[in-house]
Every structure is written in structure tokens, then in C-alpha cells.
Automatic annotation (TrEMBL):
<dbReference type="InterPro" id="IPR004358">
    <property type="entry name" value="Sig_transdc_His_kin-like_C"/>
</dbReference>
<dbReference type="Pfam" id="PF00512">
    <property type="entry name" value="HisKA"/>
</dbReference>
<dbReference type="GO" id="GO:0016020">
    <property type="term" value="C:membrane"/>
</dbReference>
<dbReference type="InterPro" id="IPR036890">
    <property type="entry name" value="HATPase_C_sf"/>
</dbReference>
<dbReference type="InterPro" id="IPR005467">
    <property type="entry name" value="His_kinase_dom"/>
</dbReference>
<dbReference type="InterPro" id="IPR003661">
    <property type="entry name" value="HisK_dim/P_dom"/>
</dbReference>
<feature type="transmembrane region" description="Helical">
    <location>
        <begin position="12"/>
        <end position="32"/>
    </location>
</feature>
<keyword id="KW-0808">Transferase</keyword>
<dbReference type="InterPro" id="IPR036097">
    <property type="entry name" value="HisK_dim/P_sf"/>
</dbReference>
<keyword id="KW-1133">Transmembrane helix</keyword>
<dbReference type="InterPro" id="IPR003660">
    <property type="entry name" value="HAMP_dom"/>
</dbReference>
<protein>
    <recommendedName>
        <fullName>histidine kinase</fullName>
        <ecNumber>2.7.13.3</ecNumber>
    </recommendedName>
</protein>
<keyword id="KW-0812">Transmembrane</keyword>
<feature type="transmembrane region" description="Helical">
    <location>
        <begin position="70"/>
        <end position="89"/>
    </location>
</feature>
<dbReference type="InterPro" id="IPR003594">
    <property type="entry name" value="HATPase_dom"/>
</dbReference>
<keyword id="KW-0902">Two-component regulatory system</keyword>
<keyword id="KW-0472">Membrane</keyword>
Length: 389
């Protein structure tokens, strides 16, 4: 059975309403109008006007005139109503048809089309929602292309190195020495880290990464991390220190994921601070609902134009150096998603040549909201209020 489209349904509904209205008007007029006219004539006779010889002719004339007037009113009114119904139905259907054409272009890969504004509020809201969806789809497609491009670029370097060594070993131009095998192990390890990071980032962005949020004492975790990294910096001019009060409130967070975020931030700070200080800080925000944790360094810093891209996939402030040091460029993107999954926010302040200050928040456990904690900020840092999530 052939389905009736929306435009035809709208037109038919208008026509049905018009038909019922005209039929009601004709029925009421046909029944009551002659009766009211006769009553009017009777009132004239009471007032002394003699209508005995013309009364019947007047009634017949009125009925004839009323019938002709009703007929032409029905013809003209019905035609005008039908035309207006068609135009209104067409006007309502036009943005919907346009939306259908745009969705077909989306299916063919053209995501640049947008819906224009409409004077009908409901259709205008639908157009706004459609455009927001289009922007989101375009952003997803752009990110997908960038991911494929970046991933190809990241994989090409270690694969080229591995291929070159293997070809040299195969044709005998390179002697099989332990150093060569060590280089091959490093490149394959970098490939493995890249694949693992991509898998974890994919799970985090899709919401499939499990978060076991429990009341967590942050200070012992920070002590452990500072000690762990200090053991690796015995012969380094870079120093790491802990700068926060003892009585920090507990937070609702996943200890493993918080540690992962801190390891990423501290590792980045040490990587870009060849000499200087890296401090791990914590303080309670102004509204006392979030605990803020920060990693501040005195390293090379980040240029202002690059700050908006810090938490994007494969972003690097110094690509060649970071690649040689083994970074995948995904750590900050993973850190941001892990913080967001724990109902916090992450941000960065940086000045080129003076260092960076990465900060993220975690919600304070309800049982710890009554505890007081001293707000500790690094010298020269900006005092900002909590950002509610």
C-alpha cells in the first residue's frame, strides 16, 4: 500500500477542516437564516407595516439571494482556502525537504551543508539542532582524518627504522651486533606503547574505561610518586618536590587513574625541564567542593598559540625531541579524558621559556567536606575558582 507523504497529509487535513467548517456554516445558515428573516418581517408587521401581499415574495427572494451568496462564498472561499492550504503545506515541507537533501549529501561525504534559519519557531529549533549535529559530525570526521594522518605519521618513523635495519641485516650491509638488536627492540617497544595508548584513549573517549571511584587519600599517593621520580633523578640537575599541606581531604576518585594522570603530567614536566624544579602541589578550591592537584615546572614552556591544542591527540610542543624521547603524544589526551570521567576538569597555564603549570580537579568525598585544608599555590600562579562539572 502506497504511503501518503506529509505534504499531502497536511493539505488534506486543511481541506477536511475547511470542508467541515463550510458544511457547518451552510447547514446553520440554511436552517436559521430564513427563520430569522421571517421573525424580522413579523416584527415589521407589528410595527404597522403591511407585508401581506409581498411577504412570501420577500421570503423567497431572501432564500434565493442567500443560496446564491452561499454558493459563491463557498466557491471563492474554498478556492482561496485550498490555495492557502497548499502554500502553507509547501512552506512547512520546504525545510524538511531541504533537510532530506542535506542528509543525502552527508551520506555521500559532503558535511559542509547547513540548514538556514526559519521563521517558524519549531522548524527553526529543528534546524538549529540539525546544524549542531552537522557541526558535531564534521568535527568527528575531521578528527578521524587527523587521527588517521597522525597515526600514519607516527607509525611511519619506527616502521621505517625497523625496515631499514632488517633490510641491512638481510643483505649483509649491517653487522648483527647487540646495538642493532637494541635499536630494534626500542622501536618495536615504541610501536607497542603507541598501540596501547591508542587503545586506552579509544576506550576512554567511548566511556568504556572502568572508573572505580572511592574515597582516596591523595597525599600518600603524591609522596610515593615524588619518591619514585626522585630516585630516577639522582644524577640530574632537575629536582622534584612536594608542596602541599598534610591534612588534604579525601577525594572520590580511582587511585590507579589518578596515578596515571600524575605520572603523565610529571613525566612531561621532567621531559621538558632539563634543569630546574618540578613541584607537585595540591589545594582545596574556593568553593571547597574540589581538590586541585597541580604539576608546575620551570622548563621550556608552551607558546600561547599552542595552548588550545595541548590536550589534543599527538600534540607535541617539540615534536622531534619528544619523538626521540619515546613519547607518543597521546598522554595528555588520555589524562584529560580520565579526569573528565572522574567529574573533574584539567587546564594548563604556561609562558614560553618560563615553564608550565598543569592543574586538574577531583571532587572531594562527602565525608571530607567538613575538613579544613590550606590552599597552597605556587609562587606566581593565578588564583582561580572551582569549575563545576
Amino acid at each position: 500500500m502506497r504511503q501518503i507523504d506529509l505534504k499531502t497529509r497536511l493539505f488534506l487535513s486543511h481541506m477536511i477542516v475547511m470542508t467541515v467548517g463550510i458544511a457547518t456554516l451552510l447547514a446553520v445558515g440554511k436552517f436559521y437564516s430564513p427563520r430569522f428573516f421571517v421573525e424580522h418581517l413579523q416584527q415589521l408587521e407589528i410595527d404597522g407595516i403591511n407585508l401581506v401581499f409581498v411577504k412570501k415574495r420577500l421570503v423567497n427572494g431572501f432564500e434565493s439571494a442567500w443560496s446564491r451568496g452561499a454558493f459563491w462564498s463557498m466557491i471563492v472561499g474554498g478556492s482561496m482556502a485550498g490555495m492557502l492550504s497548499y502554500l502553507v503545506s509547501k512552506r512547512i515541507m520546504q525545510p524538511l525537504i531541504q533537510m532530506q537533501k542535506i542528509t543525502r549529501k552527508f551520506a555521500s561525504g559532503n558535511l559542509a551543508e547547513r540548514m538556514p534559519a526559519n521563521e517558524i519557531p519549531e522548524l527553526n529549533r529543528l534546524a538549529d539542532s540539525f546544524n549542531r549535529m552537522a557541526f558535531a559530525l564534521e568535527d568527528v570526521e575531521q578528527r578521524r582524518r587527523e587521527l588517521v594522518s597522525d597515526l600514519t605519521h607516527e607509525l611511519r618513523t619506527p616502521l621505517t627504522v625497523v625496515e631499514g635495519y632488517l633490510e641491512g641485516l638481510a643483505d649483509g650491509t649491517i653487522e648483527p651486533e647487540p646495538e642493532i638488536y637494541g635499536n630494534l627492540v626500542r622501536e618495536t617497544s615504541r610501536l607497542k606503547r603507541l598501540v596501547n595508548d591508542l587503545q586506552e584513549l579509544s576506550k576512554a573517549e567511548a566511556g568504556y574505561l572502568p572508573i572505580q571511584a572511592k574515597p582516596l587519600a591523595v597525599r600518600p599517593l603524591m609522596d610515593e610518586l615524588v619518591q619514585r621520580f626522585s630516585d630516577q633523578l639522582l644524577d640530574s640537575p632537575t629536582r622534584i618536590k612536594l608542596d602541599c599541606p598534610e591534612n588534604l581531604p579525601r577525594v572520590m576518585a580511582d587511585a590507579e587513574r589518578v596515578e596515571q594522570v600524575l605520572v603523565n603530567l610529571i613525566g612531561n614536566a621532567l621531559r621538558y625541564t632539563p634543569s630546574g624544579d618540578v613541584s607537585l602541589q595540591a589545594w582545596v578550591g574556593e568553593q571547597k567542593q574540589f581538590l586541585w592537584i597541580g604539576v608546575k615546572d620551570t622548563g621550556q614552556g608552551i607558546a600561547p598559540e599552542e595552548l588550545p591544542h595541548v590536550f589534543e591527540r599527538f600534540w607535541r610542543s617539540d615534536r622531534s625531541r619528544d619523538r626521540n624521547s619515546g613519547g607518543t603524544g597521546i598522554g595528555l589526551a588520555i589524562s584529560r579524558r580520565l579526569v573528565e570521567l572522574q567529574k573533574g576538569v584539567i587546564r594548563v597555564e604556561s609562558q614560553l621559556g618560563q615553564g608550565s603549570f598543569f592543574q586538574f580537579s577531583l571532587p572531594i568525598a562527602k565525608k571530607s567536606l567538613g575538613l579544613s585544608a590550606t590552599k597552597v599555590l605556587a609562587p606566581g600562579s593565578v588564583n582561580v575558582e572551582d569549575q563545576m562539572v
